[in-house]
Please model this.
Amino acid sequence: MSYREQYEMVCGVETHVEMATKTKIFCGCSTEFGQGQNTQVCPGCLGLPGTLPVLNREAVNLAIKAGLALNCKIAEFTKFDRKNYFYPDLSKNYQTSQFDRPICENGWLEINVAGEKKRIGITRAHMEEDAGKLVHSGETITTSNSSGVDYNRAGMPLLEIVSEPDMRTVDEVVAYLEGLIQVMEYAGISDCKLEQGSVRFDINVSLRKRGSKEFGTRTETKNLNSFSSVRRCLEYEIERQAELLESGEEVIQETRTWDEGKGVTLSLRSKEDAPDYRYFPEPNLPPILIDKEWVEKIKATMPELPMAKRERLESLGLSEYDAVVLTATKAMGDYFDQALEKFDDAKTLANWMMGDLSALLKTNLCSFADSPVAPQQLATLLTLIQKGNISGKIAKTVLEEIYNTGKNPEIIIKEKGLAQISDECQLEKIVLEVISSNPKSVSDYQAGKKNAIGFLVGQVMKATKGQANPGLVNKLLKERLSKE
Amino acid sequence: MKTINKSLDGLHSMLVNKEISCTELTKAFIKQMHCCEPRIQAFLATSEDTALMRAAEVDKKIANNESIGPLEGLPAGLKDNICMQGIPTTCGSHMLESFISLYDATVTKRLKDAGAIVLGKLNLDEFAMGSTTESSAFHPTYNPWDLERVPGGSSGGSAAAVSACEVAYSLGSDTGGSIRQPASFCGVVGLKPTYGRVSRYGVVAVASSLDQVGILSKTVRDNAQVLNAIAGYDPQDSTSITANIPDYTQFLENNVKGLKIGVPKEFFSQELTTDKAEVINKALETLEQLGAEIEECSLPHMKYAMAAYYIIAMAEASSELACFDGVRYGHRAEANDMIEMFKNTRAEGFGQEVKRRIMLGTYVLSSGHYEDYYLKAQKVRTLIKEDFNQVFSKYDALLGPTNPQTAPKIGESSDPLAVYLEDIFTIPANLAGLPALSIPAGFVQGLPFGMQLIGKHFDEGLLYRIAYTFEQNTDHHHQVPVLLREVN
Model:
C-alpha cells in the first residue's frame, strides 16, 4: 500500500438534489414519495404528443436560494435547454435541463476536516427534470425478461450542483457532501432523504503524483446515494487507479458504476462511447430574467445556515466540537434553539442533548426530528435541576419517563414522588441514623480523612432513594461531624 | 349547396331565424362530406355521431330561445395533428395510427366552448412535413379545383375540406407556410397568427419555435370570427402571450386609404413566373386604386431564410419526434431488445420525409456541426427579424405572392429540395414570428393563386382590414371549384 502515498487524489462531485416543491418542475403532478406506480403522472410528464412544459416558479425560487446559500452568483439571464438521448425512463427522450446558462455559478462551501478549514469551489448549479424509474421483472436489469417504467419520478425538480475538483482526500469529499446536504437541508431546498434517493452523487476522481500540477485522467462513477458508498467507492477507485499507474498502465477516461454488493466499480462506457447530447435551447420555455428584487426577496427568506449557527453556538461558550455536533442536522440545531428559549444554560443543555437524550434516541432508533421528548420538556427538566427541585440523577429517570409517556416532567415528579428532599428536619433524622450506623467512616473523617464524607453522603442518598438534596446533606453531615 | 356555401354569419342567422335546424345543417354538411370524400379524401377520421348529438343540444337551446354564439352549431374540421379527446390523432403517420389523445388541445377546447361542431380530423403531410399532403401515410388529398392536383400542404386536408364546403372552416398549423400555401392552392383564406397569439398546447409539435395554429376559411370575416374564439393566453403554453385580444371583426372595414404597403422585391425572384407575378401586380393595382400606398422594399437577408429555416425546423423536429419510441404509445415494433425496439419502431413507423428530416436535424445539432449549422441559422434568424423591423418602421404591412406556384399535379413533386423551395415566401414570417395571411388573389390557368399579407407582431387586425377591403372589391372568393359545380 505504500505506493499509494506517492499519489494525490483529485476529486470533484456532481450532486443531484431533489428540490422540495409540492409539484413537479414542468407540470402540476404531486411530488409525494412512495405512491403507487404511475399514479403521479399526467399527459405532460408522460411525454404525450402536444403537451408543453410550464415552469414551476417555486423550483426557480429554491434554486436561487440554494445558489445564495452556496455563495454563488445568481444569473440575471438563465434558460433551459434540451439534452437529447434515448432511454425509456425519459418520457420525451430528451431531458429539459440547463446547458450554457445555468442559474447559479461560482460559489463555495466551507468544510472542516479535523479542525482544518477549506473552501470547496462550486462551479455551477442548474435546474433540470428527473427521469422515471425502470422497474425490472428480475433482480437486476441483466437477469430480467422485461422491465416497466414508473414515471412518478419523471419531472421531479432537480438541482445539479457541480463542484470544482478541489478535494484531495476521502475525508474532504465526505465532509463536502455532509456540508452540502446540511446547507440544502437548513435552507429548505430539499428534505435530503438519501434513503429515498432524493440526493445522488456522481464522483469524478483522478490521481496524480504528489507535487504534480497537472491532473491525471479521471473516471466518473455515477449514481451513488450514501456517504458510506461514496467512501468505499472512492477508496476502491483510488486503489484501482494507483495499481494501474504503478504497473505502467493508463487510467481510461470513462463512466463507471458502483456495485454496492461487490464493493467494486465497473466500467459503464468509455469517453468514445459518450453520447452526443445535442443540446439546444428549449423553445417552449422563454428565458428567465432574474432581477435584483427577486434575489433580495429570496435572500430575505434565508434561514440561519449551519456555518453561522456554529459561530453563534461558539459565541454562547460552547466548544467547536459541541457546535459541530449540535448543527449536524437541522432537526438537532432547531431542537437546541427551541430548548434554549426556555433554558439559558447552553453548556448544560448541550451536554444533555449530546449525552443522555442522544443515547436515548439512538437506542430507540429515533432522531431529534421525531423526538418524543419535546424541546420545551427538556428545558423544563433542566430548569428543575437548576432550581434544586430534583437531582441530576433523578432527572435521568424523569427523562426516560417523558420519553415513554410523553408526560410533562413536573407531573412525572409529582406522580412518582421524585422531588428532591430539602427539608432539614426530615434530612437531619436520616443523617443521624447514618452517622450512628457507620462509626468507622465517622472516625476516619474525624481523624482527618476528609474523603470519608463522600461515603456518608452516598448512604444518605441511598436511604432517600437519591431524592435528598446533596448540597444540603453535605452541609448537615459536616455540622454534625464537627460537633461530635 | 346554397345552404352550406354561406359564410359563418349567413349560417348563423339561418339558425337564429330558424330557417334550418342545427341538426339539418349538420346533416347537410355531412351529406356534402359523403359526396366529396370519395374524390377529395380530406378527412382521416369523422365524428358524425358526436356532431349530431351536439347539434341536437344546440337545437334545444334555439328552441328555448337561448342566444347562441357566432360559431355555435357550425361545423368545423381539425388538422389531424391537433388533439381531440376520444378520436384518433394520427399526424398522418403510421406511428400514431392507433393513437387516441387523452385530452383536448386548447384550441379544440376553445372551439368546443364556442359551440363548434367538429366533423372530423383532416389529412396532412406526415407530421406536417411537406407541401403537398402526399406524404400522409394513409392517402393523398385531392384539390377540389382540379382533382389531378395536390391541395398543397401540410394543411392540405384543412384547405380542401373548406374549399369543397365539407366544413364551414377548419384549423391548420403553419410551421413554414403550411396554412397559407394550401389556402393559396385551394382558393381559401388562411391565417398564420403571430407566434404566441394562439395556444399550441395539444398540437403535436414539429418545430416548437416556428409552429403556430391558424385558420382556413372561405372569407376574411369568417377567419376573424374564428380567431376571436381561439386566440388568447393559455397558461399551459408558456410562449402564448398575455396581451388582450381585440374583437377582430371590428377591423373589417372596407378602407385601405393611406395605408402603406411594402412589396419586398425578393418576393419577385426567378421562382415566380410572369403569369403569377401578373396576378399579384393586378392585386397591387386594385389596392392602390382603393387608396393604399404601394412601394417596393427589401428584405436583404431573405435569400438565407430557406436554409436557416430548414436547419432550425429539422433540428427541432429531430428532438420533438424523439418521444415516438414505442415505449408509451403509438406503434411498437417486434424486437429482441430495447435498442432494437427503438430502431425497428422508428424505422417502421416513420415515412421517408420524416426520417430525412430527423437525420438532417440530428446532424446539424451534433457536436462539431452545431456552430456551423444550428448556431449560424439562429444568427440568420435574428438578421431576418431585423430586416422586418426595418421595413415595418416604414410600412404598415407587406404584400407578395403566398408561394411561387399554383398547385402541382399529384406525383409531380418528387425532388425534396424543389418542394422545400415552395415555402420560400412563407418561411420568413415563421422565422420572425409575424402574422401572415393568404387570400385568393386571382387565377392562373383556372387554378387559384394566393397573395400573402405579412404584418407586425399582433397586427392581425390590420391584415384582416386590407384583406377584407380587397375581398369586397374583387370576386375571386365567389368562384366555386369545379367539383362543387359537379356534385350539385
